[in-house]
Amino acid sequence: MAPSFVPNGGFAAGKAAPTSVTGRLTSVYSDVQNSRIDCELPLPSVLERPFKIVAGPGSSAAGNPDEIAKLFPHLFGQPSAMLVPSETEALPSDQKLKIGVVLSGGQAPGGHNVISGIFDYLQNRVKGSILYGFRGGPAGIMKCKYVELNSDYIYPYRNQGGFDMICSGRDKIETPEQFKQAEETARKLDLDGLVVIGGDDSNTNACLLAENFRSKNMKTRVIGCPKTIDGDLKCKEVPTSFGFDTACKIYAEMIGNVMIDARSTGKYYHFVRLMGRAASHITLECALQTHPNITIIGEEVAAKKLTLKNVTDYIVDVICKRAKVNYNYGVILIPEGLIDFIPEVQQLIAELNEILAHDIVDEDGLWKKKLTDQSLKLFEFLPRAIQEQLMLERDPHGNVQVAKIETEKMLIQMVETELEKRKQEGSYKGEFKGQSHFFGYEGRCGLPTNFDAMYCYALGYGAGALLHDGKTGLISSVGNLSAPVEEWTVGGTALTSMMDVERRHGKFKPVIKKAMVELEGAPFKKFASLRDEWALNNRYISPGPIQFKGPGADAANHTLLLELGARC
Ligand code: FBP
Q: Does 192 participate in catalysis according to the annotation?
């Protein structure tokens, strides 16, 4: 019988419980949570039988292959790996592996399932192995803070959202001293392998670690897992990052509710900013799920080189047209990273990044002299709150913290001003009241959808298999996702094949190339063919909460299905 309470904050006996973490009480779980814990997850059939791992063709890089080859001399060019059925077990079962796992970066529903997948792989295929969970993200590796995971420990987190089983963090392992600390931990725990569950930056870090361990002839191998609600860590072999499906469905429920609210009173324009630091995949997916009146896609703004004024005018034009048919309400979706897509703002941010990396920014404002005239003009034009938000400290990877920039409020102000002008000119006679929302953190820790639950479990199980086979520098890849789970493919893709170089903190660094919304891709094309209809005629869809049973419960999101060529 599984325990209803995990003592000591859920941390295994003998290790001190962190003061900030309390274990999960399954006794207070709702019926739906309990039903998710006990639901057995199906695996791709290749993982249910004896398999062997075969190599695919060699690989290159997503950009600047010569630079990437120099940065990863031991890993560059390695082939992908694919699990295929075999007559007999190809991997030794009498080996006892010591594996570490770390959750890195922002939370995404399904992380606990990846850990359960690795754990169950070891339990089922390499008995007697040990799984260590590094606590609090990559800092846990550097400081050697870990917990030994066992079945009682993992049980309350099975199929549950959140990263609180071992917690996450955004630290980066990048200095020689930090690599040394990671090495010391790997040697101290005698690690055969490490699984890094993270987004583009964390998987870049995973690859750097794999390269470093290999260059030192260490036995520790490193495998990445594609995590991020943003949906921008993907390529042909890695069709989606986990968490995107659940987060979008949670936001779609909230947007749908706001739509009904708007229609019920007819008095508000809801400006909903949606998470997704760089790419607009979440916003696009939510639009496909709910049919809002206006949706701004950052990649389109960048491609058309639109200014802030152009974006404002587009919104105002639709509001004016709707006012003519007495719709003084509506729902507008805005991607979190919008301002970073507007070329003039991009230029300003690039200049601010350089200034913040190299200069002292004090109150006398002398630093502003380093801005070009155009950027200074734009900076002075922006509301003070936005100016302050643009100057906030960059995250450890050098990114502007767009989650803290209230673009929706800025747009409401700009739309109000433009509407006032049009009112005076006589071209607008409606009433405008803007309501701002930011749906971000609300979507990151929900109960994983059936899709994310199964996908993550397979990713974790597959990562276990790759480490068992001694692979390193690969990202766990599960494919054929539009087919039933039994037919999913399982393997690994060379992390270096997803890499390019980018300027961060004023220096060129290797990074996994972000997958942005493709304007020629099926999801955007579908949206573009429908948006005018949604703008003037209210075609709202309010999908309600995520379903775990019944028709459609297993269906993946529109973006993934459309990208895989399915009709939806
Ligand atoms: P990852 O790329 O680490 O998955 O994080 C994505 C994200 O959720 C973004 O959508 C958001 O901008 C950011 O994290 C917020 O970061 P933080 O949790 O540090 O506030």
A: no
- Of 203, 214, 50, nearest to 138 by C-alpha is 203
- Band (pLDDT 50/70/90 cuts) for residue 396 is low
- Residues with C-beta less than 6 Å from any ligand 1 atom: 105-106, 108, 170, 199, 228-230, 275-277, 336, 402-403, 444
Query: Of 164, 230, 340, 469, which is the active-site residue?
Result: 230
DSSP class of residue 227 equals B
Span from the CA of 309 to the centroid of ligand 1 (angstroms)? 28
Q: What percent of the chain has pLDDT over 90?
A: 79
275 Cα nearest atom in ligand 1: 10
Instruction: Report the nearest-CA residue for atom 5 of ligand 1.
Output: 106
Report the relative pairing of strands 146-149 and 130-134 from DSSP bridges. Answer: antiparallel
Contact by Cβ (8 Å): 170, 104: yes
Instruction: Assess contact for 513 and 264: CB atoms under 8 A.
Output: no
Tell me the average pLDDT across 94-107: 96
Instruction: Please enumerate in sequence order all residues whose Cβ is within 8 A of that of 289, keeping only pairs 6 or more positions apart, or say none.
Output: 248, 249, 252, 255, 541, 543, 557, 558
Q: Read off the pTM.
A: 0.91
Residue 52 tokens, joined: 């062997």
Q: What is d(CA 422, CA 320) in angstroms, rounded to the nearest whole number?
A: 9
